[in-house]
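Bumping my old thread because nobody answered last time. Still need a sequence for this structure:
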C-alpha cells in the first residue's frame, strides 16, 4: 500500500498539489495544504506523481509499495 505523506511545516501554500490532485489535498484556514486521505489507493497515480514532482518545497512524498 502506498501512503501519501505531507510535511505541513515546510508547506508554503502554493496549492500546486490541489491543482494536480484535488481529491487528495485541501487548503486549511492557515493556507497550508492538508491531506484528505493518507492511503493513495483510489487516487489517480499520475496526479499524485505530478503533485509530488511539482511541489515547490518537496513537502509531499509517496511511501510504501503498491
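Sorry it took so long. Here it is:
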Amino acid at each position: 500500500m502506498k501512503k501519501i505523506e505531507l510535511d505541513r511545516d515546510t508547506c508554503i501554500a502554493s496549492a500546486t498539489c490541489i491543482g494536480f490532485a484535488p481529491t487528495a489535498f485541501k487548503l486549511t484556514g492557515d493556507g497550508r495544504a492538508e491531506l484528505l486521505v493518507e492511503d493513495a489507493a483510489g487516487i489517480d497515480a499520475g496526479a499524485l506523481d505530478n503533485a509530488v514532482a511539482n511541489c515547490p518545497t518537496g513537502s509531499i512524498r509517496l511511501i510504501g509499495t503498491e
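Strands lie at 2-6, 25-27, 33-35, 60-64. Let me know if any region looks off to you.
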